[in-house]
Amino acid sequence: MTLRGFFPVGVALVFAFVAPARAEDRAAVIVAIGAQGDAAYAGVFERWAGLWESAATTAGLPVVKLGADESKDALGGLREAIQANAGDGTEPLWLVLLGHGTDDGKEPKFNLRGADVSVTELAGWLQPVKRPVVVVCAFSASGAFLKPLSGAGRVIVCATRTGRENNFARFGGYLAESIADPGADLDKDGATSLLEAWLAASRSTADFYKNEGRLATEHSLVDDNGDGSGTPADWFQGTRAVKRAKNNQPADGRRAQQLHLVPSEADQSLSAEAKMRREALEAELAELREAKGSLGEDEYFAKLEAILVQIARIYRGAD
Q: 71 and 139: one domain?
């Protein structure tokens, strides 16, 4: 048998995230710093933003950081920054929102200096964006943002699982620390993926509440398959989900594992077309592992070898 039986879904997953390659295609980063609220949070969100900015600068990516200057229109600045980066391409727009959020049961909002931004406004601004999008909702009550923002070509990370978890969310700080931390690189491929950083941050968040003897008031979710449901970190062993959703669909995480704010040297050597082909093969590999129980041992390993050889040839071609 060929791999053709596994190929269509894998390719569909990748093409949902990948547009035609452009000569100067590269990722972009927008970091929005929310209103500090209580004086206890003075400087906290700015420090988190600095970690994101540092990681993006290390990767040679353009960064727009806004919200810290009270004299400037943060709401308008956020809208304009998204519009300026709405073009197509293969590389994602990273939108990082750091601060506090609220949910009154009607219209969830992210608290900016001055006027807040509602999830309806944010969803509208993102609708014209043709490139892949990563939205990091690192604020309280951010679980209410997940479903409205979810969609094809998007990865959504929320600090909480619902809008009712509305206490200060520490998850944002742990994720900022993990996004470029080699110690969070679980698969040891030389770069920390968004999934790996999210898992590390979720673990650190859970450890904080356990060590403090406090009831956890935040439970982060990741959504990258567009169904708006999200997957919690405790579904994973390493970088692989070991549980499935109630509808028996695979858990989120596959696409988040392919995204690196700071890529490895090997990834930097790949063309957009080579990356696209590798990601399609990685999707095939994930599907093959899901189907392992229905295949004979010889058939499974033959298919596994064929995929891995093709991935190795992509990197060899780059060398």
A: yes
